[in-house]
Amino acid sequence: MHSQLLRSVGLVASLLIATAAAAIPKVDTIGPCGETGVPGPVKKALASQGYRVALDDGSTVEFWPRAQIATATKPREDATYAFAPSTFVGVIHFEKNTRDYRGDAVPAGTYNLRYELQPHDGNHLGTSVAPDFLLLVPPAADGDPNGNASFEQVVDLSRQVTGTKHPAPLSLVPPEAKEFPSVATDPDDHTILFFKVKTESGEIPLALVVKGTTSE
Question: Do residues 150 and 158 make contact, with C-beta atoms less than 8 angstroms apart?
Fold first, then answer.
């Protein structure tokens, strides 16, 4: 009886350890984007290597950065990243339904990502540690990665994702990591992917919240 009890306790402990390990988000590198809904010119603009993040709920998020991203000569003073507004940054694929940083529902699927800065108005104060965001855009409506879309145009396209009056943002935060690529969960339960992208002046680090919402 005693040995059976010990075996049972050991089995339970092993299951708890395995479950805890499985719940820790992790990142792996993957090959080029093969998503059928992504237009050819967009695929050509992407790096040949992407990232797959295994989330704590068992689902995955895949992300392919742009092969090279142009930096802005005069970024806004409070910006974390020196990208021009509406810059195409990459493609993301959610295996399961998710929520954007605002908490609005986002259907499972593939989306283009375009960089924008939070407007300077009272509606957005305190919603994020940084004003930098990537807006989810339907790939079918955004086939030219070099297109010079305005802020209003990108917002309108992003509204198609949520079906509301608000666009679908993912938060970019300061890239405070020692290893790239890597993934971490912050105290606010945000799952953050840390990675590097190429620019005309060399590689720079980025940090993208791939799961988690604002508390505001």
Answer: no
Q: Looking only at Cα atoms, what is the longest distance across the chain?
A: 74
Measured distance CA(144)–CA(127) in Å, rounded: 30
Q: What is the residue-level pLDDT of the chain in tens, covering all 216 positions? A: 445 543 543 443 443 344 444 468 999 999 999 999 999 999 999 999 999 999 999 999 999 999 999 998 878 899 999 999 999 999 999 999 999 999 999 999 999 999 999 986 655 454 567 999 999 999 999 999 999 899 999 999 999 999 999 999 999 999 999 999 999 999 999 999 999 999 999 999 999 999 999 987
pTM summary value: 0.87
CB of 142 within 8 A of CB of 157? yes
C-alpha to C-alpha distance for 186 and 53, rounded to whole angstroms:
15
- Which of these, 42, 63, 50, lies nearest to 145 by C-alpha position? 42
Nearest to 133 by CA among 53, 214, 188, 51: 214
